Each structure stands twice: as structure tokens, then as C-alpha cells.
């Protein structure tokens, strides 16, 4: 399920309740962000259905972006059991994302991706 995170409190609640979260930072005027977001969403829904996918609009919530040291977009953060585990910034391939998600996903959920 895709959701928008509006503040740090909402993010901390999500991270506390979901063992694996992919957090997507973007801006409305970033063409790369707008093209990449649905692809990441489809990847997660198809291959990693137990992963929580959330989005942060850096224009609407600049404080949240700054708190997570996001100063350019797109940025994808992977949180495992509430802790940041991986970070992809600006240029990355979906295959790279898939590869890095597969092992922790199988360990956390007992399923192969």
C-alpha cells in the first residue's frame, strides 16, 4: 500500500509497526521522480508484497526531508525494523533495488522474492 508521510511522528509510527519500509523522497516537479515512483511501487507490490511503501513530498514537508538528510531527489531509503539500512540517491537501477531487498525480505518474512 502506498501512503504519504506528513511528519516525523507519522513516520516513526510506521517504522515501529512495519518490519520493512521503503521510503521514497521526491518533489512534484522532478520528472525522474514521477517516472520512477510507479516502477518502484510495482516492484514492491509484485515481488515484495509485505514491504510497506511510503512517500515523502520534499516540497510539502521540507523539515522531514532535512531530518533524513535528503537534499536531492529522488532518494529511496530502506528501513529494517525501524533502522535505516540502505540509501539510494538520484541514479540507481531497479535491479539494484531488487537485489538489495531480496535477502532481508526472505529473512524477515520467510519468503523468497
Q: Tags for this entry?
A:
113 residues; alpha/beta; Glutaredoxin; five-stranded mixed β-sheet; 5 strands
Write up this protein.
- The structure is a single chain.
- This protein is of the alpha/beta class.
- It has one domain: Glutaredoxin, CATH 3.40.30.10.
- 43% of the residues lie in helices and 26% in strands.
- The protein contains 4 helices and 5 strands; from the N terminus they run βαβαβαββα.
- The protein has a 5-stranded mixed sheet.
- Helix 2 links the parallel strand 2 and strand 3.
- The protein is globular, with a radius of gyration of 13 Å.
- The two termini are 17 Å apart.
- 27% of the residues are buried.
- The mean pLDDT is 94.
Amino acid at each position: 500500500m502506498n501512503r504519504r508521510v506528513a511528519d516525523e511522528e507519522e513516520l516513526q509510527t510506521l517504522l515501529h509497526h512495519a518490519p520493512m519500509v521503503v521510503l521514497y523522497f521526491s518533489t512534484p516537479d522532478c520528472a525522474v521522480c514521477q517516472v520512477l515512483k510507479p516502477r518502484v511501487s510495482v516492484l514492491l507490490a509484485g515481488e515484495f508484497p509485505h514491504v510497506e511503501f511510503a512517500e515523502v513530498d520534499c516540497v510539502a514537508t521540507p523539515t522531514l526531508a532535512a531530518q533524513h538528510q535528503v537534499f536531492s531527489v529522488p532518494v529511496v531509503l530502506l528501513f529494517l525494523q525501524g533502522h535505516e539500512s540502505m540509501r539510494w540517491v538520484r541514479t540507481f537501477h531497479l535491479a539494484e533495488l531488487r537485489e538489495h531487498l531480496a535477502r532481508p525480505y526472505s529473512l524477515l518474512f520467510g519468503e523468497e522474492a
